[in-house]
Amino acid sequence: MTYTWKIPSFSDESFPSPYVNDHFDNNLSSSSIYDGFNKMMATVRQHFQQMSALSLSLAKGYTADLMEVKKKLDTVVPACTTTTTNLLPTRSIKNNRRKSLRTTQTTTCVKKLIIDGEKYIYKEITVTNDKGKVISQINKYESISINTINDTTPSNVNE
CA-to-CA distance for 48 and 79, rounded, in angstroms? Predict the structure, then answer.
């Protein structure tokens, strides 16, 4: 079924419109056009609210699922590696003295969990100076689908 709205023009063509035929009558008075637009906008608003409610309910379910995954990841024993880096000494321009050799230690801990064809990864990277003071800390959650074949999925993910 096709709905059309007659547009007065030189060629007298009609254009399909799914909303217009349901909301406008053939009377072209300004009040009926105004009422027709109000009805059309009410329908659009109702459709938008239904789509918004659906997307919010899906997001709430997705968030709840991610919280469950986070709880399960917390129980996994992490695999940690530590790297020590010696940074080159720097020269102070103001005092023209060399500063001592700086050492940083980077600890990377990774937790992996596979649930229903999804690989969930938690990475924690902590960088400390030679005195043990934390310089930076990064916590990162990732998920990778391992059941679907997709060219955009990284093929060199470390196991």
Answer: 47
